[in-house]
Design goal:
Layout: E1 2-7, E2 18-21, E3 33-38, E4 41-51, E5 66-67, H1 76-89, H2 93-97, E6 114-120, H3 124-133, H4 137-145, E7 152-153, H5 154-160, H6 164-173, E8 177-183, H7 204-219, E9 223-228, H8 234-247, E10 251-255, H9 263-273, E11 277-280, H10 286-297, E12 303-306, E13 318-324, E14 332-333, E15 339-340, H11 341-352, E16 355-360, H12 365-372, E17 377-381, E18 392-397, H13 398-403, H14 412-423, E19 427-431, E20 440-443, E21 460-464, E22 467-471, E23 478-479, E24 493-496, H15 500-510, E25 516-519, H16 529-538, E26 544-547, E27 560-565, H17 579-591, E28 602-607, H18 613-620, H19 623-637, E29 643-652, H20 655-675, H21 677-680, E30 683-689, E31 695-696, E32 699-709, H22 714-727, E33 733-738
Helix pairs in contact: 3-4, 7-8, 17-18, 20-22
The chain binds adenosine-5'-diphosphate and zinc ion (2 copies).
Length: about 750
């Protein structure tokens, strides 16, 4: 037998399968990880195909050294997925295959730990009888303990009787029990308990939606977009769907934007499904991650919850892929090989005969447009559970606040609403979408803003244990505040703008004794950073939660009756055609955190542009009106989904190399368009420029930005440009990004 093996080296020259002989008696199948000789080294590889014939001279074919696991690590389905992705991305197969294996596993043989398991070999009655007749107390104890009919670990028996070994040995020789070795898998997180949670009765809307989804899952076909307002009970729909999916003997995958920010979703699933659910997240230790992965691979865990990369989980026979909060940009991976987890979910669901359900209270413009074109089936839940009202949103004009002499960052309406909320024993959330204390530091004399020496972006003032320093949010650089302006030498250094730290500070001054928590990248760095802050808030140990957009996502705290948005305008003006969409989503999502319990919710949005139509629609939480308006704007301005955006990005430490490299690529694109008149039809715009962040992490950046008409020949053009990027440049990094998640 022979195996076709892709060796784990990412390079065009070796981007082809190599043939190896499978030694007699070695079990090798498609997807097996194997060690193979490669040149003078031994390399890791993945088996693409197994065949009886070999077109090469059999004497020249070398042999597989050994398999790395007893079973194929990559499912055949995922081997095909990697092949499809490599084609789509125009990249080596070795690169996409890497996505199918947790990085913890690569190039490492993880030490497998075993433990001893014990179970009865006789019936319960026979065991009880034997226990009755037993002279030794230990042996009787063990027999009775094992009567529950499930295998138990040696650790459990040691907890039962202090020296179980002799007793076990005897019971084994009498063939009452059997003892065997099993791989020890750690199941991380809280203790598992299944089926204890009470099941609420479904609302009418939930029932209707399920009546559409369940038959589709039976027949194994359909892509759905579930548009349900915040608090409409989407999670309960997921739980019922997953239950039905398991009952069909199939598996399910649930993607969430970020595990740490969705602890409730995980808790709910754990409570209902126990250890049948596996949770994949970045907080797991390598060993834990490997174990969860193996529990999935071996079919012990049949529900997988995880962030983006969980879409590659080795589940077999999946009947259901759910993408919760589908509008989140985290589903899109910018790193090579680039992918959109939503597209992968659709591909895999088709492959395994399952359905996909994308869900959001603020679907992405692209997904909603697809639903309108019936690419996805649209399902709606327009009301909150229990007919709770949507929160009332008030826009507060901060210019008027200034005119009337209020210089604080809290408007008077927000101050009194906060006082009332806390006074009545409820909780509040305050959104400030910038971390740190002051957002920038500049010179009053000449106007210079202090920028990071590695990046062309202004530095943020942070207070760390009372010590003020300047931080760069892009490269992590930290430096002291200069005593004098680096440009003019003046000592008139002043602080402007504000971040979450300042909100927390001002809050403490305004409400002495108030207990507030803060959630941003700075406070959640530790292993359980998120969990602690959220738990304090849930338990009422903190009354107010201040945070960045992290607090806007999917949290369900029934005691929250007030949400304050301190600077709503901030995200409106980022240089990206999606700024309006992002702002609308952020405001609607954060507003949706209010009034989820018995008490109605109130939302106060502070802005300098109260007439801005995006803010007005967000205040009314009118997604459909926003969608119509935004789609029309994009149609006129020629933005996706009507066109495609792409860029070739060049980065280099040497400014001249970066610039020249981009110029060269621009010229090559021009000649490509000239040589192919059909490609030229796709061109709306193509120009050479420095992106907004022209200097980042010590590298000079230039780009060829393209806006393209969607025509059948676009694929060919994109493939050619992508190939240019693959070739690379001397002393520079080149990236090709198709519909990039950021243009900055
Ligand atoms: P969404 O994700 O749509 O914003 P959730 O799934 O978080 O909403 O549900 C909102 C709240 O309503 C949760 O506290 C949930 O436990 C509760 N809930 C969901 N469905 C029901 C139901 N059928 N009956 C009662 N409460 C429900
Ligand atoms: Zn100056
Ligand atoms: Zn920097």
């Amino acid at each position: 037998m022979y195996a076709q093996v892709i060796v784990d080296i990412v390079h065009e020259n070796v981007d082809k399968p190599y043939t190896y002989r499978i030694p007699e008696g070695m079990d090798i199948q498609v997807g097996h990880r194997v060690h193979v000789p490669f040149g003078r080294q031994e390399k890791e590889g993945i088996v693409l195909a197994v065949s009886e014939e070999c077109t090469l001279d059999p004497d020249k074919v070398r042999s597989v050294v050994r398999p790395m696991e007893p079973y194929p690590a990559v499912l055949p389905e995922n081997v095909r997925l990697a092949q499809w992705m490599a084609q789509e991305n125009h990249c080596p197969l070795a690169e996409t295959l890497r996505l199918m294996i947790p990085s913890e596993l690569r190039r490492k043989t993880v030490r497998v730990r075993y433990h001893k398991m014990v179970a009865l070999t006789v019936s319960r009655e026979a065991a009880l009888e034997a226990a009755q007749a037993e002279r030794s107390r230990n042996r009787a104890h063990i027999l009775r303990f094992l009567c529950d009919g499930v295998p138990h670990s040696m650790e459990e028996l040691r907890a039962l009787v202090s020296e179980p070994y002799e007793a076990l040995r005897q019971l084994e020789t009498r063939q009452l029990i059997r003892i065997w070795q099993e791989e020890l898998l750690r199941t991380p997180g809280q203790a598992l308990h299944a089926g204890r949670e009470e099941e609420p009765e479904l609302t009418e809307e939930q029932t209707e939606v399920l009546a559409r989804l369940l038959p589709a899952m039976e027949s194994g076909k359909g892509h759905f977009l579930l548009y349900g307002v915040t608090g409409s009970g989407k999670t309960e729909v997921f739980i019922r769907l997953v239950r039905a999916c398991l009952a069909q003997g199939r598996t399910a995958v649930i993607l969430v934007p970020e595990i740490a920010l969705t602890p409730q979703m995980v808790d709910w699933f754990r409570a209902r499904f126990g250890s049948v659910a596996a949770v994949l997240h970045s907080g797991l230790s390598p060993g834990e991650k490997y174990d969860e992965w193996r529990r999935i691979r071996l079919g012990q865990a049949r529900v997988v919850i995880g962030a983006r990369s969980a879409v590659f989980a080795p589940v077999e026979n999946a009947g259901l892929y759910i993408v919760d909060e589908e509008h989140e940009s985290t589903y899109f991976s910018d790193r090579h090989p680039r992918y959109d987890a939503r597209e992968i979910a659709i591909w895999r669901a088709k492959e395994s005969g399952g359905i996909t359900v994308f869900s959001s209270a603020t679907p992405s413009i692209l997904s909603f447009a697809k639903a309108r074109r019936q690419v996805y089936e649209l399902l709606e839940m327009p009301h909150r559970v229990g007919n709770r009202p949507m929160p009332e949103v008030q826009l507060v004009d901060m210019r008027k606040e200034l005119q009337s002499g209020n210089r604080s960052m809290f408007s008077r309406p927000l101050q009194s609403a906060l006082a009332a909320c806390i006074g009545s024993g409820h909780q509040a959330m305050l959104l400030m979408n910038h971390r740190g204390y002051y957002s920038f530091v500049s010179c009053r004399n000449c106007g210079t803003t202090i920028k990071c020496p590695n990046c062309d972006v202004s530095m943020t003032y942070h207070l760390v244990r009372g010590d003020g320093k300047l931080h760069c949010h892009y490269c992590g650089n930290v430096m002291p505040v200069p005593a004098a302006c680096p440009d003019c030498g003046s000592n008139k250094i002043r602080y402007f703008g504000s971040g979450t730290q300042k909100v927390e500070d001002e809050l403490a001054k305004m409400f002495p004794g108030l207990r507030a928590g803060r959630m941003d990248l700075d406070t959640t760095a530790g292993k359980d950073g998120h969990a602690r802050i959220l738990e304090d808030f849930r338990q009422g140990r903190t009354q107010v939660l201040v945070g960045t957009q992290m607090i806007a996502k999917g949290l369900d705290f029934p005691q929250v009756t007030l949400v304050g948005v301190l600077a709503a305008d901030m995200s409106l003006h980022i240089p990206d055609y999606r700024a309006q969409e992002k702002t609308f989503q952020l405001l609607t999502q954060v507003a949706g955190r209010a009034g989820r319990g018995q008490e109605p919710g109130k939302v106060i949005v502070q802005t300098y542009e109260p007439d801005n139509p995006v803010l007005q629609l967000a205040a009314r939480q009118d997604y459909r009106a926003f969608f119509v308006q935004e789609l029309e704007r994009r149609r006129i301005a020629l933005y996706p989904p009507y066109t495609a955006m792409a860029r070739l990005l060049v980065e280099s430490r040497d400014p001249m190399i970066a610039r020249r490299g981009a110029e060269g690529l621009y010229a090559r694109c021009e000649s490509l368009l000239q040589a192919h008149p059909e490609y030229a039809e796709c061109r709306i715009l193509m120009h050479l420029e420095q992106p907004v962040m022209g200097f980042l992490r010590g590298k000079e950046r230039w780009q060829v930005l393209m806006k393209l008409r969607i025509r059948p020949q676009l694929d060919g053009f994109v493939a050619s440009v992508s190939a240019m990027a693959q070739e690379g440049l001397e002393a520079a990094d080149v990236y090709f990004e198709y519909n990039p998640s950021t243009m900055m």
